[in-house]
Amino acid sequence: MRYSAFKVFMQGLTGNKGWKPVWREPEPKPEYDIIIIGAGGHGLATAYYLAKEFGLTNIAVLEKGWLGSGNIGRNTTIIRSNYMLPGNEPFYEFSLKLWEDLEQDFNYNAMVSQRSILNLFHSDAQRDAFVRRGNAMFLAGADAELADEAQLRRELPFLDFDNARFPVKGGLYQRRGGTVRHDAVAWGYARGADSRGVDIIQNCEVTGIDVENGAVRGVQTSRGPIRARKVAICVAGSSGRVAAMAGMRLPIESHVLQAFVSEGLKPVLPGVITFGAGHFYVSQSDKGGLVFGGDIDGYNSYAQRGNLPVVEDVAEGGMAIMPMIGRARLLRSWGGIMDMSMDGSPFIDKTHIDGLYFNGGWCYGGFKATPASGYCYAHLLARDVPHPTATEMRLDRFKRGHLIDEKGQGNQPNLH
Ligand SMILES: Cc1cc2nc3c(=O)[nH]c(=O)nc-3n(C[C@H](O)[C@H](O)[C@H](O)COP(=O)(O)OP(=O)(O)OC[C@H]3O[C@@H](n4cnc5c(N)ncnc54)[C@H](O)[C@@H]3O)c2cc1C
Question: Which of 80, 228, 264, 321 gives 20 to 30 Å between its CA and that of 382?
Answer without folding.
Answer: 80
